Amino acid sequence: MSDPLRPRASLRTAVVWEVLKDALDRRVKAAGQRPDAGERVPGVLEVLDTGGGSGNFAVPVARLGHRVTVVDPSPNALFALERRVAEAGVADRVRGVQGDASDLFDVAERGGYDVVLCHGVLEYVDDPAEGLRNAVAALRPAGTLSVLAAGLGGAVLARALAGHFTEARQALADPAGRWGAGDPMPRRFTPEQLTELVTEAGLEVGAVHGVRVFADLVPGVLVDTEPDALEALLQLEAAAAELPAFHAVATQLHVLAERD
To answer: Boundaries of each Methyltransferase type domain copy (predicted)?
Structure first.
């Protein structure tokens, strides 16, 4: 596992990173077999990270040798990204530009990327379907899309376990999955809603994973003080992530899809 994903941060990113890394490896092999492979740098993918912030995924992807364009609306996040990629020694492979999902092609190339990351974006945009269509339009033929979004079930479970039963019920009834006016998350998705958005955008869903099924519920002091607890929890998260029964209670949902 790459350094940016450890130690505690790995609980939030480990499942997605392992799935994404495998997808990048497969895309490298597929790109080498394409008729236009001679026009590419062997083993190097063009990756677009929409809402990529300070580079939680861009940096480890660049460390694999790929070129990453990060699009984010926050100047502060892009400043942190610039500093982070310099410290990681990948400044020549990561480019940060200010923009968002609605005006994506003002700053990114339509149909220019082998892999597009759409992580933590659909919760915040005015029109998730439009945001997803733009992400898909940025893909090259046979490209791969990685979508990560807030899950409804995880929020309901967390509010209930905290004793906020009315808020938990409100989240269940609310069309956007919000538990009240003080909820900082604009929108949440069920697994069915998220996969439907992806398929309606013209992609074939390859895998769905539940992310942070247990990590947000386990007391931090337990993970920090018990020997081997972090590694055991990581293994539990990985085992549960692929099981549909746990998707409905995950804090986040990850969908990996391909453009046919």
So the answer is: 48-145
